[in-house]
Design brief:
alpha/beta; Spore Coat Polysaccharide Biosynthesis Protein SpsA, Chain A; 2 domains; seven-stranded mixed sheet
């Protein structure tokens, strides 16, 4: 049986030509010092500089390098997805290419996975060298993610993470979901999630490729991944329940408005036409929305029933 590599280092990159040689040499030095067999998978996410030429050049010097080049910029999640698919190591470690993540963390991350039994270990940049305008929104974002997911991590967005091989082969990273891989892993059944304080380096070359718009995307993605985790296989539970409640409230209110008018009419009391009462139209709107939500849940169930992965389950052990 072929011996598997100890570590696969997955490095998404975008316009990082200045840092690549130093990063690869650093990873190689740490791996050799700790007797770790390794590969480096570098995914060029449509760089407009000479990053890909650097990767090709480094491949001639470091045979452990594998390279993937996108025709255009697809984003970090797409890069990680392709890197995970290609990875062959027992432990997969992700890090950014800008040298702000330290390869010196690799041996301890590897040990925590292999010896302490974690499925996933996330880095925590306890001391950060980013400006306050980036740190403060990040703290609020991480607080929200902890509350919603129930996973006690301080830094969901840290690029330095380690995974047991089975984890990355069992989850699908898409869109902008790279921030929420711990949530995806937990939903897939990998609940042994740990954290390690890691060294955060000051940026040595270039500028950050992420702007404030990532905060907006981050919260939208958090809503998406939270919904998919709870109702991805049963959308009718959410839409059907909400639709039924709105339909009943709207229907009940409509009946009450009409009954109230009839009572006043029979007893000769002052009354208003039903169509003159705003509450009547609010009730009709609730009925319509209730029906639409119920139909949305029904359509979701039909789509889910025909999905090819509807019966894909993570099986831990079997006895025959």
């Amino acid at each position: 049986m072929e011996q598997r590599l100890n570590v696969s280092v997955v490095v998404p990159l975008y316009n990082e030509e200045e840092s690549l040689r130093e990063l690869v040499a650093w990873i190689d030095r740490v791996a050799n010092k700790n007797s770790l067999s390794y590969e480096i998978i570098m995914i060029d996410d449509g760089s407009s500089d000479s990053s890909w030429e650097k990767v090709e050049q480094l491949k001639t010097e470091y045979p452990a390098i594998k390279g993937i080049r996108f025709a255009r910029n697809y984003g970090k999640s797409a890069a990680l997805y392709c890197g995970f698919k290609e990875a062959e190591g027992e432990v997969i470690i992700t890090m950014d290419a800008d040298l702000q993540d330290s390869p010196d963390e690799i041996p301890e991350l590897y040990r925590m996975i292999m010896e302490e039994g974690y499925d996933l270990v996330s880095g925590w940049k306890k001391k950060r060298y980013d400006p306050a305008g980036k740190r403060l929104p990040s703290k609020f974002f991480n607080w929200t993610a902890r509350i919603v997911s129930g996973i006690k991590l301080h830094d969901f967005n840290c690029g330095l993470k380690a995974y047991r091989r089975r984890v990355v082969k069992s989850i699908e990273v898409y869109g902008e979901m790279h921030r929420y891989i711990p949530i995806l892993a937990k939903h897939a059944g990998f609940k042994r999630i740990g954290e390690k304080v890691v060294q955060h380096q000051e940026r040595k070359y270039g500028v950050s490729k992420f702007g404030m718009e990532r905060m907006v995307k981050g919260y939208l993605d958090l809503i998406t991944v939270s919904f998919m985790s709870h109702f991805g296989r049963s959308p009718m539970y959410f839409f059907g329940s909400l639709g039924t409640i709105m339909f009943l409230l709207g229907g009940g209110t409509t009946v009450w408005v009409i009954a109230d008018k009839l009572y006043k009419q029979i007893n000769g009391l002052p009354l208003r036409a039903v169509t003159d009462q705003p509450l009547f139209f609010v009730a009709i709107l609730a009925i319509i929305l209730g029906v639409q939500l119920f139909l949305a849940g029904f359509l979701g169930e039909l789509i889910n029933r025909n999905a090819s992965e509807r019966n894909n389950y993570l099986i831990d052990k079997t006895i025959k």
